[in-house]
Amino acid sequence: MPYDSTPKATSPATDEARRQLEICNACRYCEGYCDVFPALTRLTEMEPGAISHLASLCHNCRGCYYACQYTPPHEFAVNLPAALAEVRQKDWEDYAWPQPVARLFHRSGLALAAALIAGFAALIAAIAALRPESGEGFYATLSHNAMVAIFAPAFLLPLIAVSISLRAWWSAIGGGRVGLADITRAAQAAGRGRNLDGGQGQGCNFEQADRFSNARRHAHLATLWGFMMCFAATSVATLMHYGMNWPAPYGFWTPPKLLGVPGGILLCLGSGALMALKLRADPALGATRVWGGEMGFTALLFFVSASGLVLYAATGTAAVPALLAVHLGAVLAFFLLIPYSKMVHGFYRFAALMADRRGA
Amino acid sequence: MTEPPPHPNWDVAVVGGGNAALCAAIEAAEAGARVILLEAAPEHMRGGNSRHTRNFRCMHHGPLSVLTDTYDEDEYYDDLIRVTGGKTDPDLARLAIRESEAALPWMEAHGVRFQPSLSGTLSLGRTNAFFLGGGKALVNAYYATAADLGVTIRYNAKVAHVHIEGGAFRWLALEDGARITASAVVLASGGFQADLDWLARAWGPAARNFLIRGTPWNRGEVLRDMLDQGAESVGDPTQCHAVAIDGRAPKFDGGIVTRLDCVPFSVVVNRACMRFHDEGEDVWPKRYAIWGRLVAAQPEQVAYAIIDAKARGLFMPTVFPPETADTLEELAGKLGLDPAQLAKTVAEYNAACRPGAFYPTELDGLATDGLAPPKTNWARPIDTPPFAAYTLRPGVTFTYLGLKVSARAQVQSGHGPLANVWAAGEIMAGSILGQGYLAGFGMTIGTVFGRIAGQEAAAHAL
Ligand SMILES: Cc1cc2nc3c(=O)[nH]c(=O)nc-3n(C[C@H](O)[C@H](O)[C@H](O)COP(=O)(O)OP(=O)(O)OC[C@H]3O[C@@H](n4cnc5c(N)ncnc54)[C@H](O)[C@@H]3O)c2cc1C
Ligand code: SF4
Ligand code: SF4
């Protein structure tokens, strides 16, 4: 299917966000909460691209909802966190490539589960077909080459899909040339969860309604950093395998384990906490129709990290083959879903932060 | 012989649920009193007009929180006297001003967060501290603090009667008939501007066409009840503070976003397509308040600000898009005005415009010549399509009539102070603001006198 790169016309979600943003632009009370409002006041035209940019700058901290004197039942019916979440969700679906897969996966947590099971099935088949005669550690169950044959494309294809989507989105928001300063600024904002801190460190209005709390920010940072450490662990291991001729298994005091174990623990705690918080927060302040999909995705992150930790704890036991299949199946599902699940938010948000060149 | 009062269930009852009520409830609870707060509105509409506010005006010596530089008592007082034309109680006014400096850190300590002056309002960065998220965020913070301090909060609890007997308060009756007894009461239920019948009696029938910028719950039941029972009043009972706002605003609760800042760059006409006042008399922040009255005096209490393409972008964005057209005649048609007359009025104005330099942010002296009424600044011809129009109507902010209080916020009657009745906020602001208004002073009055009232009421009860 050829990728449709024509600019997306305005949509009901964009129109609704524009209606609300015009109210905010006349009000500006929430200016200090996050990057959305300062970016809004600098706009001269509220074009769909500009609204998409604002939507991805919003981190759904909900500060502006609880502070708003115009929330429903007021006739202005301002619910900016929800309006911007709908635009983000629409963008992730509209720009995702290839389209049918995207829509299927974004919609529901059930599709996520189905993918997970498909991942298992493929693995189990692979294990049966490719079981090595000899091998150490995990490779006694699944040969390293088989693992690479499955995971390299499973990792690269989603990244290619994401970059195709992101390029089109970037030009729609008028992102311009990326400079080093843009990357460092965005990395700093993302790495500290700046848009989740309420502007002054008080945090989000998430699980405690109008009271502020940093729980979501901390959980999100644990998830982010945990994920990055796990990712680094895998990358280092790959380098060690090919570059240094030092194949797995690795002992505890080696870079892959020193990064992977704490990373896995952080990811596990962070994603678990995110789920608990999401259960307590008001669903009406997000994109309601994908609540299940988002929850499914967070659950998948939790499952990936938890199964990894269990696998590590079970080293040397008879449970390894089964646990390995489960863990790798989850990882596989996770990677394949990157472009079509909530995971893609990381890419869009990072891009949005790069394009937010206030004062730069 | 009257029966002895039943043992009060509460030390302090606070009537109202806006800034003044919350400050009083928090102070009283911190002093150790058992406090009940009675808010007429349902929970989602709690906070009265306070939830529409954006800042409070604060005296300070040197930078304080988000405030820059220094704003001392005399400068603050002079600013106040200028807008009230001297209709001010100097002692109470100076008390409010002086106490505002300590109020800011107190507010922060009780959960309020401030942010630097909003874009478009930089001129206030020295005098007014802006609330992060606006007044509703402030109100939320206070409700959370009050709840943590053990204050009992009742919503949908409209007080219908404050029973005064023998110079003292005995009990409250809610609208649903329930009675609440307390050792002391703080009245902080705002003005009466949401009662259009009362406004119409005071101002005249035209008041029914006014829009109310804030809460529909400030209907003055408590104020009326107290005046009926001999409490002394202050402030002009016939006057209200009204500004010109977007005529398409909702009847109530339109709040800040319905303001229109385009008047200095426009010509303003009434339904007869006639101009009636100098649109360029002064910078808008100093003039927006008189335009409420000016529009109120026009037929049907409505006016139209006409601009051309040159004026777009010179003023803060508006909540509703303007009516636009390529010709003035077409624009008049869309507004239901006489096309020929509108074109004629604008043509006369254009003919009176003189060449000269135009500076949108300062008094540029670019005035009309030989036009009545003149436009004395920013007078450029309205000649570049597309033309645009905003409808203006009077929007009432608050009423001036209130309860007379002492410097300790105690309510006065013809026979001296009422023993256990205090008042704070808009319900007593007439004691300080006889006329006019100074941006950010309403929240100063509510915070300063709310705190005093809470302390005094608790001290009396305990
Ligand atoms: C749009 C707008 C913007 C404003 N902006 C500012 C600003 O930026 N800075 C500033 O200083 N001032 C501003 N003001 C003025 C400011 O709102 C008031 O001065 C201030 O809020 C008054 O506080 P209050 O607590 O006395 O009254 P309110 O906040 O109005 O509270 C009155 C409370 O009493 C309750 N109540 C009413 N009747 C009863 C009853 N019978 N029984 C029980 N409860 C009752 C109401 O529900 C409400 O909760 C603004 C006003 C408006 C309308
Ligand atoms: S969310 Fe509400 S309070 Fe905040 S800027 Fe928008 S309109 Fe104003
Ligand atoms: S929800 Fe939070 S991040 Fe999103 S616009 Fe509102 S204040 Fe900003």
Write the layout of secondary structure elements.
The complex is a heterodimer of chains A (360) and B (462).
Chain A (H helix, E strand, L loop, with lengths): L11 H16 L8 H7 L5 H10 L5 H4 L13 H16 L3 H9 L1 H22 L13 H29 L7 H13 L22 H28 L12 H26 L10 H23 L6 H18 L7 H11 L5
Chain B lengths: L9 E6 L3 H12 L4 E4 L16 E3 L15 H12 L5 H20 L4 E2 L12 E4 L3 H14 L3 E3 L4 E7 L2 E7 L4 E9 L8 H8 L7 E2 L8 H8 L4 E2 L5 E7 L20 E3 L14 H4 L2 H7 L6 E5 L15 E3 L2 H8 L3 H14 L34 E13 L2 E2 L6 E4 L2 E8 L17 H21 L1
Parallel strand pairs in B: 1-2, 1-9, 2-6, 9-19, 10-16
Antiparallel strand pairs in B: 3-5, 4-5, 7-8, 8-9, 11-17, 12-16, 13-14, 14-16, 15-16, 18-19
Helix pairs in contact in B: 1-4, 1-11, 2-3, 3-11, 9-10
Bound molecules: flavin-adenine dinucleotide and iron/sulfur cluster (2 copies).
One iron/sulfur cluster binds next to α1 of chain A.
What does this protein look like?
The complex is a heterodimer of chains A (360) and B (462). The two termini of chain A are 39 Å apart. The model of chain A is unreliable at 1-7 (pLDDT under 50). Chain A has helices spanning 12-27, 36-42, 48-57, 63-66, 80-95, 99-107, 109-130, 144-172, 180-192, 215-242, 255-280, 291-313, 320-337, 345-355. Chain A is built from 14 helices and no strands. Chain A has 360 residues and is mainly α. Chain A folds into 2 domains: 12-94, no CATH class; 99-355, no CATH class. Chain A is 64% helix and 0% strand. Chain B has 462 residues and is of the alpha/beta class. Chain B folds into 2 domains: 10-239 and 400-461, FAD/NAD(P)-binding domain (3-Layer(bba) Sandwich); 243-395, Succinate dehydrogenase/fumarate reductase flavoprotein, catalytic domain (Flavocytochrome C3, Chain A, domain 1, Alpha-Beta Complex), CATH 3.90.700.10. Chain B has 11 helices and 19 strands. In chain B, strands 1, 2, 6, 7, 8, 9, 18 and 19 form an 8-stranded mixed β-sheet that branches. In chain B, strands 10, 12, 13, 14, 15 and 16 form a 6-stranded mixed β-sheet that branches. In chain B, helix 1 links the parallel strand 1 and strand 2. In chain B, helix 1 packs parallel to helix 11 (441-461), helix 3 (90-109) crosses helix 11 (441-461) and helix 9 (328-335) packs across helix 10. The longest helix of chain B is centred in the last third of the chain and has 21 residues, at 441-461. The radius of gyration of chain B is 24 Å and the shape is elongated. The two termini of chain B are 27 Å apart. Mean pLDDT of chain B is 93; it is low at 1-5. One iron/sulfur cluster binds next to helix 1 of chain A. One iron/sulfur cluster (SF4) is lined by residues 23-24, 27-30, 64, 67-70, 78, 80 of chain A.
